[in-house]
Amino acid sequence: MTVETIMTKQVITVQEDATIEKCAHILSTNRLSGLPVVNDAGKLVGIVTEGDLIRRKTDVQTPAYLEFLGGIIYLDNPNKFFEDVKKTMGLYVHEIMSTELITIHPDDTVEKAANLLVHHKIKRLPVLDDEDQLIGIVARKDIMQYLFQDK
């Protein structure tokens, strides 16, 4: 079975320059946990999730460090800390979205989609055609319905 047969074809997206509040409204109104983010040309540029929005409202964990001879030695990567601070202060979707995208092709198998979701610990896969246009999305629930449908 191919991804095309189980994917959601009517994909709700959000523009990368949309506000966080607009994104939160779209997610809650449509009872979604994540949205593909597109630019003005309609190209997929990221994914924004409920987790991204919730993380924005939480305290940022400072990296572990030692003070030694008047200096600071970081035990954790301080770049991750600065990235988290930037996301916490974001007002627009492009400031908090994930840009490392895992995608799938409509002709790929459902098994491949399931493996990608499990391996990358993600909840949804944007489906792109040969021209890299977003044509659908496959979520965990889609795969569950396929795997455990009444026979």
TrEMBL record:
InterPro entries: CBS_dom (IPR000644), CBS_dom_sf (IPR046342), Diverse_CBS-Domain (IPR051257). Gene3D superfamilies: CBS-domain. Residues 7-66, 97-151 form the CBS domain. Keywords: CBS domain. The keyword Cell division does not apply. Pfam families: CBS. The keyword Zinc does not apply. It comes from the Bacteria. This is CBS domain-containing protein.
